[in-house]
Known about the structure:
Blueprint: E1 6-10, H1 16-26, E2 31-35, H2 39-46, H3 60-67, E3 72-75, H4 78-84, E4 87-90, H5 110-122, E5 127-131, H6 139-150, E6 156-160, H7 170-175, E7 180-183, H8 188-201, E8 210-213, H9 215-244, H10 250-258, H11 279-292, H12 296-323, E9 332-336, H13 351-361, E10 365-369, H14 375-385, H15 390-396, E11 397-399, E12 412-415, H16 427-433, E13 439-442, H17 449-455, E14 458-461
Parallel strand pairs: 1-2, 1-4, 2-3, 4-5, 5-6, 7-8, 9-10, 9-12, 10-11, 12-13, 13-14
Helix pairs in contact: 1-3, 5-6, 9-11, 9-12, 11-12, 12-13
Amino acid sequence: xxxxxxxxxxxxxxxxxxxxxxxxxxxxxxxxxxxxxxxxxxxxxxxxxxxxxxxxxxxxxxxxxxxxxxxxxxxxxxxxxxxxxxxxxxxxxxxxxxxxxxxxxxxxxxxxxxxxxxxxxxxxxxxxxxxxxxxxxxxxxxxxxxxxxxxxxxxxxxxxxxxxxxxxxxxxxxxxxxxxxxxxxxxxxxxxxxxxxxxxxxxxxxxxxxxxxxxxxxxxxxxxxxxxxxxxxxxxxxxxxxxxxxxxxxxxxxxxxxxxxxxxxxxxxxxxxxxxxxxxxxxxxxxxxxxxxxxxxxxxxxxxxxxxxxxxxxxxxxxxxxxxxxxxxxxxxxxxxxxxxxxxxxxxxxxxxxxxxxxxxxxxxxxxxxxxxxxxxxxxxxxxxxxxxxxxxxxxxxxxxxxxxxxxxxxxxxxxxxxxxxxxxxxxxxxxxxxxxxxxxxxxxxxxxxxxxxxxxxxxxxxxx
Length: 465
Ligand code: UDX
Ligand code: ADP
């Protein structure tokens, strides 16, 4: 089996950046080059000030500091990195299509296709090409087709190696992966490629946790794992609505249910709704392929997970409006949190975006504070919805530089992300500054209800009256 000494990763995003950093750290004998067409992003990865890395992940900057320009390199010279590498990870974004066939459901594979064509064009030696981006089932087949038919006679082996890291805990997840999944052909050359990739991970992952499958099982398993996780969140969120109509408390219910070892306690935190770049996109892919393959019952079953999530976000916004006497027009509401979960600066599909949109449609004034999200990102997320003009958004929204900046005379505070620092705020001081009655809408069940009520707040949370 050929030992890999040079790898390249196309795409320096939330998946490619942390994954390659960890590979570089755990495999000092391998040269890892991460390339991206986005010059600004690569410049940030190379910035001497590690606080400027384009991605916030606990533990990431320490690993980059230890490996960068030793065996980890960031570059925009995509062609050179492809040609030099023996193994190429494709880790580009695959957003949901916003137009044409499969609009709103299917993944847009244009970046993947461009990558494959680029590899075909410049590769002058045999390569193992590994799909790392989350992709619909059978994408490997499409990549192989492009590579085999437009290449220069070099041999390509295509593997699927889905990423299971969760943002906010990416480094831990990569270092101590529950499993690594490698899908590839069962031919002798396919087996050799799977073994070569496996050998990289074996530098730090126990071999029994490295699972080999055929390509399609690997691709489908990624979608299914995310669908199952998201389904748990939607299931508990559905029950949270029921708890709010009864004396049941969602935390107590989740605990009691989770104690059943067949069910388990993880991913049962009721919330304002799941976000992130994966859950919704992967389920939509599952729905789309099920429909396309003539399985409408399967499609409808999984689609319900997303409909429940939409309902949860809508319900949270409606609860704010109805509690504030059915009008939020010209009222100031302070948002704590914009990222889709704590410990990340990623805001893709964050519930905060949709809750904000609903309130802005009622002409509320929002002040948004998130410890890691930049002002331009908040405006980009809201402008992208196209519900209002960019000017209207800037008129209605302030992005606060520090948490207490806009609490004076605020009608309500809404907690959208479970950042630990929110728990440590001086809530008495915040209460004093706010208009009375002062409301908190805790979309993350982060604060203690009794404590908040003792201070004087009118406190509302998910799944508890
Ligand atoms: C997910 C998968 O966990 C990961 O394996 C895959 O590789 C990518 O998709 P990620 O989206 O980064 O990871 O974060 P995750 O921790 O799964 O959270 C997703 C969303 O669900 C967040 O908005 C989170 O706040 C929400 N969530 C999670 C809940 O609301 N309740 C829970 O109990 C768990
Ligand atoms: P993910 O969460 O999947 O990592 P990101 O959007 O964070 O997604 O990162 C994907 C990266 O891939 C982006 O930085 C984008 O510029 C890069 N990219 C997309 N297409 C190409 C391409 N053809 N060549 C190189 N980089 C690409």
